[in-house]
Fold LacI family DNA-binding transcriptional regulator.
Amino acid sequence: MTALSDHRTAIRPTMADVAAEAHVSVKTVSRVVNHEPGVRPDTAERVRAVIERLGFRRHDGARMMRQGRTFTIALVVEDLANPFYSQIGAAVEREARIRQHQLITASAEGSPTRERAVIEALINRRVDGIVVVPADESASSDAAVEASQTPIVYMDRPVRGTPRDTVLSDNHGGIRSAVEHLVAHGHRSIALFGDDPAFWTARQRREAFVATQQSLGLPGPPRVSMGPHSPASVRETLTLWTETSDPTTAVITGNNRITIALLLALRDLRRPLSLVGYDDFELADLVDPPVTVVHQDPAAMGQKAAQQLFARLLGDESPAQTVVMPTRLVVRGSGLRRSTTTR
Amino acid sequence: MTALSDHRTAIRPTMADVAAEAHVSVKTVSRVVNHEPGVRPDTAERVRAVIERLGFRRHDGARMMRQGRTFTIALVVEDLANPFYSQIGAAVEREARIRQHQLITASAEGSPTRERAVIEALINRRVDGIVVVPADESASSDAAVEASQTPIVYMDRPVRGTPRDTVLSDNHGGIRSAVEHLVAHGHRSIALFGDDPAFWTARQRREAFVATQQSLGLPGPPRVSMGPHSPASVRETLTLWTETSDPTTAVITGNNRITIALLLALRDLRRPLSLVGYDDFELADLVDPPVTVVHQDPAAMGQKAAQQLFARLLGDESPAQTVVMPTRLVVRGSGLRRSTTTR
DNA sequence: TTGAAAGCGGTACCAC
DNA sequence: GTGGTACCGCTTTCAA
């Protein structure tokens, strides 16, 4: 053991240190560490003993660099604290872990600029692939992604430009199931409180609502109010629509947040309105009456996206594909026809 | 441009490629890329032009290796989809991003074995530091952490062995505030539905409950039921405790999940019990009556842990410190004294 | 079965 | 100002 190796060992032993101690070459240490065949058992044993004694741990950074792969994928979303995204994150991480990969998660906070910066940083780190819930449809980082050849999968919303693998939710089907459910329970005058039309998903759901309403032959022009909403604005609009000769008897919301705003508004109004919310939420069962919802499955979407990404990493060269994940109507009661006396 | 560089450029240009094209040394390219001073403006401009033309992007893996730092920290929790952890995750990621670091998140799924494997993999990757919500108190990966010298911060629960930086929540204060609130509203017979005593936090809260009950001079032996719970088991216990000569009039829960089980049980029982839940939840406002809770601030805890970690990365060598984060009682109404006629 | 040497793509150090 | 070169710690290649 030289003075040098002695010193280095104290900090972080390398394969060279192990090799010196075990009187073998670095290559042999490498073989042992990576369980490569072709090492005599006793040699391997000796090397393993030294590894153990010195507390050697392979420096994966060096390995990645030489191999040109990082065994890392990344997930870029708007806000990791949002349940929709955190469920996606958990699913993607799981798929990564199963395949011995690690996951870098990053928030873009809804800003295309930040999203681009984040994605470029990830490319510089040579992550093997990226899953992105894009901030908008502009594909802000398209050029960088293109040049880097880094496989990317988009989720929840499509982006313009070069077609890429994309996992969407069936917004049309989700809204249709909501409308049909309400109609089946006798509703004819249904309103939609959608999200800000700046969001692609919000526009999709609005279109689906209008189309379904027409295809079912419901009377009158569709009543649609797009966000952003507050409980107050919702209350106002609701009052308007329920005090006509053709009062709205049921409401569909465009997402989670709006469902909550609506529940608050309904509580104040004390009006017997039926409701189907978009997005499931934890306490839907505990509200009175329990809230019927269109359930998107973020975990399934995340899993699907990760699987698509790993297929690319394994060499799948087929054309970019878009997958639309089904939604599920969870009936809990709030969609039933309700009389004033119910409350 | 040689044939070699021609080929390489098509894949991924390196500093050597840029240097050759710009007729400067690699070192000069490095200087330009890193905005180091001491490069003539026109040289820098020429280099930048080539960088642009070739689409060069620095390989951060190589840089990290040379510098011995990865500009990466990691977060290990039980389940990324759990709101408590995902809020921590969002906060930690934010602190990392502000400091130009990236965050690797990993789930240990509550298994100490998996946790150890995950942490060792992170150490092998030479992450600069790790934040861990440990699966148990065993500090399963302590030896590896010790040897690797990787800074680590524990959250929510302490671990045995070598003292390390730890961020805890004030379980005692949280429970005390809940009990005091109920007592202030006239309750004298209060019960606790705690979580599985296998969890350190659950035991802490139980102890706090018993201690507070005694210090306030409440009558009788403390009524405590530790988990795991189901709505059915909760209902059974509640029935027992409310049908004595000294009926329980208020309940404190040990966490989020139990609060929900309790709400379901209460709905079935239709008994006028007051309630203070541990952990805030999104729709606490919408339940009838709105649920008063002890709010832990996972975002603040995550932020604090990340800040402590970065202090270490910046060279803070002071002794390991434990920080206890305060909780906040969010009064919403369910803690008030309720008569049978209220429902 | 084993090892020597050349890289992977940058940065650090020191000449010029 | 600029460049040469060793080197981070491992894998790859090829020879012995």
